[in-house]
């Protein structure tokens, strides 16, 4: 019979791109989402169940009804700054929410899960590139909730034969190359969308948070990975588990870092418009540089990025901000 996957948080940015890709591989995505940050209009590739992962009865009912082969779990709160201001929300949604989801899975005898983790679990690493054996030492509540869930998955795997892949995303960005989905957060805090909002005049300028870091040009360096590449990694992780592969925790990035200044000038070059910028002090909790060693993802999942060059990232993101690329 047709393969099915329950996509918790499938109305959000990375979840909706993953649902679209699953459908294109003939896997039915059943989206389960509370629509607090997700968008109903982003659910277009399979059934939708409106519910919260903390609502065990609704979730268990959905699992028993659809009997998915696995759960892909994106449902979480994901603003670092907010996690410092309101940690209770983060521990409740991300930790209690995942516990509720795992217990619903046990009840419904679903034993495979793919979990959205984060490079935020590494905090400020002592050396670069970051590998999967780099010590995990998060520096904010958001990163701690992701690390705690990884530890829960490990314990559940040992005790209950749960099979999992934890995917530690670096900086998700870009949009569906077909133009059917975009990056759409409220409030929008991420660098590339903020820069595009500055370019189209929605905001007066992009605030650059610090140009006195110990990096080549003084601005922070990040590993930007296209959302469609992230989506593909989930499909590969699903194949890995379905084929009997073992539990994995894998970094997802390109292996190359780009500075804020490099991103801003690439945007200017590609859309042929200036991005007005203003220098601001450092944002609390930002490590100077983060980028992965992509080897383990390639060896274990056969994953290598296809859309994550800066040009493709900007060209796919720009149309959602009414901007055309002109190269
Ligand atoms: N950043 C910035 N201005 C903004 C948004 C982000 O200078 O309006 C910087 C931020 O300080 C960090 C980098 O851009 O160094 C990437 O930030 P983002 O919030 O996109 O992702 P994060 O790395 O925090 O997950």
UniProtKB/TrEMBL annotation:
The keyword Isomerase appears for this protein: yes
EC class of the enzyme, as a word: isomerase
Reaction(s) catalysed by this chain's protein: UDP-alpha-D-glucose = UDP-alpha-D-galactose
Keywords: Carbohydrate metabolism, Isomerase, NAD
Biological-process GO terms, alphabetical: galactose catabolic process via UDP-galactose, Leloir pathway
Positions of the NAD-dependent epimerase/dehydratase domain: 5-253
Cofactor: NAD(+)
Pathway connected to this protein: Carbohydrate metabolism; galactose metabolism
E.C. number(s) listed in UniProt: 5.1.3.2
Tagged with keyword Isomerase: yes
GO molecular function, one term: UDP-glucose 4-epimerase activity
Superkingdom of the organism of origin: Bacteria
Quaternary structure annotation from Swiss-Prot or TrEMBL: Homodimer.
Family: Belongs to the NAD(P)-dependent epimerase/dehydratase family.
Protein's name in the database: UDP-glucose 4-epimerase
Species this chain originates from: Rhizobium leucaenae
């Amino acid at each position: 019979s047709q393969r099915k996957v329950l996509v918790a948080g499938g109305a959000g940015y990375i979840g909706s791109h993953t649902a679209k890709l699953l459908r294109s591989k003939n896997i039915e995505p059943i989206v389960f989402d509370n629509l607090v940050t997700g968008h109903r209009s982003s659910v277009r590739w399979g059934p939708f169940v409106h519910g919260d992962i903390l609502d065990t009865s609704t979730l268990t009912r959905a699992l028993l009804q659809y009997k998915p082969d696995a759960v892909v779990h994106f449902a979480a709160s994901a603003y670092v700054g907010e996690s410092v201001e309101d940690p209770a929300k983060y521990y409740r949604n991300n930790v209690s929410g995942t516990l509720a989801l795992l217990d619903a899975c046990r009840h419904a005898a679903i034993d495979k899960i793919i979990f959205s983790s984060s490079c935020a679990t590494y905090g400020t690493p002592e050396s670069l590139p970051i590998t999967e054996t780099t010590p995990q030492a998060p520096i904010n509540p958001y990163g701690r909730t992701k690390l705690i869930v990884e530890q829960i998955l490990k314990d559940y795997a040992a005790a209950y034969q749960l099979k999992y892949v934890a995917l530690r995303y670096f900086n998700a960005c870009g949009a569906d190359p077909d133009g059917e989905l975009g990056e759409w957060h409220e409030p929008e805090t991420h660098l590339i969308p903020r820069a595009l909002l500055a370019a189209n005049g929605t905001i007066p300028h992009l605030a650059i948070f610090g140009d006195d870091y110990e990096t080549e040009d003084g601005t922070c360096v990040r590993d930007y990975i296209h959302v469609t590449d992230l989506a593909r990694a989930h499909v590969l992780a699903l194949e890995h588990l379905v084929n009997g592969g073992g539990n994995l925790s894998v970094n997802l990035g390109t292996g190359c870092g780009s500075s804020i200044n490099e991103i801003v000038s690439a945007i200017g070059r590609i859309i042929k418009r200036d991005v007005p910028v203003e220098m601001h002090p450092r944002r609390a909790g930002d490590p100077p540089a983060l980028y992965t060693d992509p080897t383990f993802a390639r060896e274990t999942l056969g994953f290598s990025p296809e859309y994550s060059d800066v040009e493709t990232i900007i060209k796919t993101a720009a149309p959602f901000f009414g901007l055309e690329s002109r190269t």
